[in-house]
Design goal:
single chain; alpha/beta; Rossmann fold; four-stranded parallel sheet; 11 helices
């Protein structure tokens, strides 16, 4: 029987091929992950696509009712473009905690006591420009940010490119933690090396999502994910 300890639900944009395998690789014993997808039919432009997918979430959570302990939404862009509390009606429809990527990142950074951070992302300018203001509204100062946008085919930067760019941009910076944004960016292998190189905690969107979902499901698993966030309660 899968999920005898807890079943986690995760909903993601239909082009995301990273969040499921990245989380599968570190799930604690007895915990299963169950995915759902949303698509932006008929929407053009990134913002319209993101908001169309958010509008589809009440229907997307319905199949999870009574089957999972928590649902994560793997789309940081939605949190950046939506107003505060946007996710609460979706959680009410789901009947279980509904945890968007943006809000889980804030929760993870707050648990680390990090109020002055660096931010790395692979976003286009229209989205990257929202990041500092969004964190500021949550009481977190972005002291330095760096962006390595998707390539012309829409592919995310490679792990080598992320690692090299983060070291180049953030080594020696006066920050309490580094946030690596985007749920379709594979990061888990690089988190502990980057923490060693930078001397600060590193939290990616998928790491924050996993940490918050396990907590909401009542699963205490200090070794489930890489990095300092998962070692806080050891």
């Amino acid at each position: 029987m899968y999920g005898w300890r807890a079943r986690l639900g995760v909903i993601m944009p239909d082009n995301n091929v990273t969040v499921e395998p990245e989380l599968y690789g570190v799930l604690p014993a007895g915990v299963s992950l169950h995915g759902g997808r949303v698509a932006p039919p008929g929407a053009s432009g990134l913002r319209d696509q993101v908001l169309a997918m958010a509008d589809a979430l009440p229907g997307a959570v319905e199949p999870f009712r009574g089957r999972v302990a928590v649902i994560g939404y793997a789309c940081m862009a939605t949190s950046l473009w939506k107003s505060a509390g946007w996710h609460e009606p979706v959680g009410a429809a789901a009947g279980v905690p509904f945890l968007p990527a943006g809000e889980t990142m804030v929760a993870a950074l707050s648990r680390l006591g990090a109020r002055r951070i660096g931010v790395f992302s692979p976003y286009p300018d229209e989205l990257a420009g929202l990041v500092a203001g969004w964190f500021d509204r949550h009481g977190i100062t972005v002291a330095h940010s760096a962006n390595l946008p998707l390539d012309t085919q829409g592919a995310a930067p490679s792990l080598h490119e992320v690692y090299a760019a983060v070291r180049r941009e953030f080594a020696g910076r006066d920050i309490a933690a580094l946030a690596v944004l985007a749920t379709d960016l594979a990061t888990f292998t690089a988190i502990e090396p980057l923490e060693h190189d930078l001397g600060v905690p590193v939290v990616s969107s998928n790491l924050a999502l996993l940490w918050n979902m396990l907590g909401a499901a009542g699963v205490r698993a200090p070794a489930a994910g890489p990095g300092r966030l998962f070692r806080l309660d050891v």
